[in-house]
Amino acid sequence: MKVVIAMMQHETNTFSLLPTSLDAFSRVVGLQKPPSDKQAIDLYGDADMAFAGLLDIARSYDVEYVVPIAAYSEPSGIVDDDAFNFICKKICNAVKDGCDAVLLDLHGAMVTESYDDGEGELLRRIRKTAPEIPVAVALDFHANVTSTMVENCNVIDGYRTYPHIDMRETGKRAAKSLINCLKQGIETKICWQPLPMMTHMMMQATWHQPMKDIMELAIEGEYNTDILNASVFGGFSYADIPHVSLSVLTVEPVKNHLGKGLVGQICAMAWERRYDFIYTPLPLSESIEKAKKIKSHPVLIVDHGDNTGSGGSADDMSVLDEMLRQGLTGIIVAPVRDPEAVDQLINCGEGNEMTLTIGGKYSVPSINQIGHGLNCKGIVKKVTDGCFTITSPVQTGLKVCLGRTVVFDIGSAIIVISEEGWEPYGPELFIHAGLIPEESQFMLIKSRVHFRAGFESITNKIIMAAGPGVCSSDYSQFNFSQLPKPMFPFDKKMKLEKYNFL
Ligand SMILES: [Zn+2]
Fold it and tell me: From ligand 1's centre to the CA of 166, what distance in Å?
């Protein structure tokens, strides 16, 4: 048996102006274009990513495999057509060359210039290339799943955790189902139900309610029946497209009829809890006032409005500005994305003093937000290559390269500035920069939920800070013109009469 294994990972924030061309799909690992074959396997084959799980299963079943491309990008704006077509062509050509199955690591929330459902279009092209070849897909928990995706593959499985600490396991589950079915001659069917509800991403953590019970119901349903895969997708909200949803999906042998019941049960629970998914952010100044009163340390301040992991520019300085305005000191910050400032500071040289504006280079016209930079004077403490290996539980083992990186000391705060943006899941970047998180009074990062995997254990207190940005937690700021109507929570009185599981 021979399989094609590939990765195309991008979560598209359609409100973000950050461009997403082909080089975005390799920059985070320090390459000019997405790797393939041995290079892809060396970079991603032993990290906690679905791609590695697909490889694990191919190897354990002694299946021959080829890797035409492994394209991974941090979230950003709409993917350009050239990049999307390049990736699709690589995968379709490998399929055309002959294989018995296709195993894919996809995100599920990719929007391109021409398609609001990038993954659906890729799967449609694969099916058109080889209509009889079965396809298994591992998806992110934040996938906005579509009927095109469901109709054009045989197995789908999604991460069961947010923070995502089971990516590799998800790849294994997806690949195992498909290869087992192929070996036994079993045909699969997918039951899928999207719900017209936008769950707030701040309330999607699977360690906490309301999502915890919903995910557990899916997992138990899979363990206790002949259902092969059961997934809950929280959906990705920062996308003005017609198919944002929470959805539930099962895969089972075609002769079975258990999936529909389980999907209905899970959907009923999610809908019943819809009000629990609403999140109201505290005003920024009040969050910082709360942080200021905490005497123990370190206090972790989490700016969730400008998070790279949701498409943020990672260069809005409003939260740090507010912390300085309120007189906080002993702050360490990482990372701020600002290639221009990096350049200026490297030219200034280690040990030298400079006054400049950091960040604020990106505005967000869709929500009438002007980029907010920080004018400050400080000393260049250190210059690094920005490369380190993730040791905390999300994407463990992945070597990340954020480009040239500068550690800049402005007195009350030490700021780590990089050429690339990145959502810190754990303290690796601070440590890489020579900073000791435990000794700081305040750590400031840009994240939303993923940080909990690597920071909770080294943090005394966590304060969520609603900074402005393209992933602002105030959803009322965004003009969602493409969403289906009605949609909860925008239409709170809506009913779901046509859904027979309620
Ligand atoms: Zn995700």
Answer: 11
